[in-house]
C-alpha cells in the first residue's frame, strides 16, 4: 500500500536532519544554511513494532520483514514561496502525492543556527507555512478549474464533480481556511482525495527541540501542542540532532545513549507511530518458519482487502482467514498452542481485521 509522508517546514529547521535519521542514511544534505536542500529526497523507513520480533521469536522465523513507510524531504518553504520566493514551491508537487504532512517546527534556541525570520516562534512559523500551503492549493485550483472549462461545456459528469469540489475548496481557502475544513459527503470522498490538495492532508507537527529538552519538551513545544490540539492535528517532541546521532549507533550503544538522555525509545519510533495513527493505519502479521512479516492496512479493512495487500489473487480468490489475535498467539506460545486453546478463528469475507491479528489466508487460484 505504500504510505507516504511529506516533510515540510521553513528552511534550516531540521527537516533533512530528521529525514536522515529516519532513513538511517546521510542521503539528504543537512547543514546550517537555509535552502540547503534543493532536490527532494525520498526514503523508505521500517515501521518499528516490537510485536513482530516477539512473533518471530516464537515461530523461529528465519527472517523478519517490517512494514514500510515513505518519507519525502523537500526544500524549505518561506513567506512568499507561492509567489516564487525561495525554492520550496516548485517541489510542493512532491508533497501533493503524499498521504500526510510532517510539519517540522524549530523549537530550539541556538544562536549559531540561522532562523530565516530571525526569531524562534514555532506557532508563528506554522502559520507562515500553512499560508504558503493554502496559497499553493489556491493556485493549483485556479489552474485546474481553468483546464476544466472545456469539459464542463461538454456536460462531463466527472468534470462537474471535480469543479464543484474545487470550488468548495477554493471558497474555504479564500476565507483563509485550509481545505480540510470543507465538509465532504461520502459519495464525494474519493474524488475529493483525488484532488490531492495539500491542505486536506492530516498534519503531524514535529517539535524539533534542543538535546536537553528531548525527554520533557519545552515552552515552545508546549505552545505547539496547544495549537495542534485546537486544530485536531497530531504532534511529537523530538530532537532531530539526537535522533541523527542515535541512528548511527548500534543497538546496544543506542540503548545506553537513550537511557542517559532519559528517553525510553528513539523519538523516531514515536514519530512513525504517530504518523501511523494519524493515517488511521493498523498492522496485521503473517508468521511462519520462513518469515514473520507485518502488513499495513487502514482501520476497518475487511479480510479479503487485507489479503489483497499481500497479493491481488488473495483478494480475488479469498475463501477464509485463519486468525489468531496477537495476545492469544503469544499466550499459546505459537499457532499450535493457540489452536489447542480454541483461539484460532475461521473468519469470512465480512471480518474486519484487527490490529495485531496473525492471519493465514486460504484462497482459490
Ligand atoms: N534539535 C536541534 N538542535 C540544534 N541544531 C539542530 C537541531 N536540529 C537540526 N539542527 C541543525 O540545524 C541545521 C539545519 O538542519 P537541516 O539542514 O536539517 O535543515 P532543513 O530544514 O533541511 O533546511 P533546508 O530547508 O535549508 O533544507 C543543521 O546545522 C542541523 O545540524
Ligand atoms: Mg533540508
From TrEMBL:
Keyword terms of this UniProt record: ATP-binding, Magnesium, Metal-binding, Nucleotide-binding
Domain TGS: 280-363
The keyword Magnesium is assigned to this record: yes
GO cellular component: cytoplasm
Residue intervals of the OBG-type G domain: 3-258
Requisite cofactors: Mg(2+)
An example molecular function term from Gene Ontology annotations: metal ion binding
Function comment: ATPase that binds to both the 70S ribosome and the 50S ribosomal subunit in a nucleotide-independent manner.
Family membership: Belongs to the TRAFAC class OBG-HflX-like GTPase superfamily. OBG GTPase family. YchF/OLA1 subfamily.
PANTHER family: OBG GTPASE FAMILY (PTHR23305), OBG-TYPE G DOMAIN-CONTAINING PROTEIN (PTHR23305:SF18)
Protein name, as recorded: Ribosome-binding ATPase YchF
Species, as recorded: Pseudooceanicola nanhaiensis
Amino acid at each position: 500500500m505504500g504510505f507516504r509522508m511529506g516533510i515540510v517546514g521553513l528552511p534550516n529547521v531540521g527537516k533533512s536532519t530528521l529525514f536522515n535519521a529516519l532513513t538511517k542514511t546521510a542521503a539528504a544534505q543537512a547543514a546550517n544554511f537555509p535552502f540547503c536542500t534543493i532536490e527532494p529526497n525520498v526514503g523508505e523507513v521500517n515501521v518499528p513494532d516490537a510485536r513482530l520480533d516477539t512473533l518471530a521469536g516464537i515461530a523461529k522465523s528465519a527472517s523478519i520483514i517490517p512494514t514500510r513507510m515513505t518519507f519525502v524531504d523537500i526544500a524549505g518553504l518561506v513567506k512568499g514561496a507561492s509567489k516564487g520566493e525561495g525554492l520550496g514551491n516548485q517541489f510542493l508537487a512532491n508533497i501533493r502525492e503524499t498521504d500526510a504532512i510532517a510539519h517540522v517546527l524549530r523549537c530550539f534556541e541556538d544562536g549559531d543556527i540561522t532562523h530565516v525570520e530571525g526569531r524562534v516562534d514555532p506557532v508563528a512559523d506554522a502559520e507562515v507555512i500553512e499560508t504558503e500551503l493554502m496559497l499553493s492549493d489556491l493556485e493549483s485550483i485556479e489552474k485546474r478549474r481553468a483546464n476544466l472549462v472545456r469539459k464542463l461545456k461538454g456536460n462531463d459528469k466527472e468534470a462537474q464533480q471535480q469543479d464543484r469540489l474545487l470550488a468548495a475548496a477554493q471558497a474555504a481557502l479564500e476565507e483563509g481556511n485550509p481545505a480540510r475544513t470543507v465538509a465532504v459527503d461520502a459519495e464525494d470522498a474519493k474524488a475529493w482525495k483525488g484532488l490531492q490538495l495539500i491542505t486536506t492532508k492530516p498534519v503531524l507537527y514535529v517539535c524539533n527541540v534542543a538535546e536537553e529538552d528531548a525527554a520533557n519538551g519545552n515552552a515552545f513545544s508546549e505552545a505547539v501542542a496547544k495549537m495542534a490540539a485546537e486544530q485536531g492535528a497530531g504532534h511529537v517532541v523530538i530532537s532531530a540532532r539526537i535522533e541523527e546521532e542515535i541512528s548511527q549507533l548500534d543497538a546496544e550503544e543506542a540503548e545506553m545513549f537513550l537511557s542517559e538522555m532519559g528517553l525510553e525509545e528513539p523519538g523516531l519510533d514515536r514519530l512513525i507511530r504517530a504518523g501511523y495513527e494519524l493515517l488511521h493505519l493498523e498492522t496485521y502479521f503473517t508468521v511462519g518458519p520462513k518469515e514473520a512479516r507485518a502488513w499495513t492496512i487502514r482501520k476497518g479493512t475487511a479480510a479479503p482487502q487485507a489479503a489483497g495487500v499481500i497479493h491481488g489473487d488473495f483478494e480475488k480468490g479469498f475463501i477464509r482467514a485463519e486468525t489468531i489475535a496477537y495476545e492469544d498467539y503469544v499466550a499459546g506460545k505459537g499457532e499450535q498452542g493457540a489452536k489447542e486453546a480454541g483461539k484460532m478463528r475461521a473468519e469470512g469475507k465480512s471480518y474486519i481485521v484487527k490490529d495485531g491479528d496473525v492471519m493465514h489466508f486460504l484462497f482459490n487460484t
